[in-house]
Design a protein that fits this description.
Helices cover 25% and strands 29% of the residues. It is α+β, with helices and mostly antiparallel strands. Strands 6-7-8-9-12-13 form a six-stranded mixed sheet. A five-stranded mixed sheet has the order 1-2-3-4-5, with helices on one face. A two-stranded antiparallel ribbon has the order 10-11. This is MBL fold metallo-hydrolase. It holds the Pfam family Lactamase_B. InterPro entries: MBL_Glyoxalase_II (IPR051453), Metallo-B-lactamas (IPR001279), RibonucZ/Hydroxyglut_hydro (IPR036866).
Length: 212
Amino acid sequence: MLHYHTIPVTAFQQNCSLVWCDQTKEAAVVDPGGDLETIEWELERLGLQPKAIWLTHAHIDHAGGVAELADKFKLDIVGPHEGDRFWIAGLPQQGAMFGFPPAEPFEPTRWLQDGDTVRIGFETLNVRHTPGHTPGHVVFHAPQIDRCFVGDVLFAGSIGRTDFPQGNHQQLIDSIVQRLWPMGDQTVFIPGHGPESSFGRERKTNPYVGNT
């Protein structure tokens, strides 16, 4: 069975998630933006073996710790979509701009495309390309537990910002309506910031995408 545990990291309180297969205890680290000592402590506490980093997108609060964590544990870096290559290249500048510790660029082991899958232990998740917040944003859908790790596409009561370089508001709305809603109202999503919610609740109450 698939399990996950969410850890708020960095001054931006970004939701880094540990996702693991309970049969193998192999884990993926979703969006390790920083506070790596905390992430490593949680991995040890839960008895997990980190095997990969999965990235929804390459903003500093999601990707700032990727290079260091990957190097320390020899992890594959999976994602995001290649549309975020320029954000990865600009990580040092992003860090300086927002007061983060120095962050190094990296080359993903594997870029992701819409319709791809990722695997940890005996568990498989589906990848959807969801541009709008960034051009290379992806989400990780685990239908076996009705969960989706959505990064900064959708929040409880809000949606992702689109005023950063190559953001696009209409693309973001289209990503939510065309890629997320078909996963089902019952699906609970883990956003990049703030509490979990469900697609059904947001369809009914979210002022930005309600009744879509």
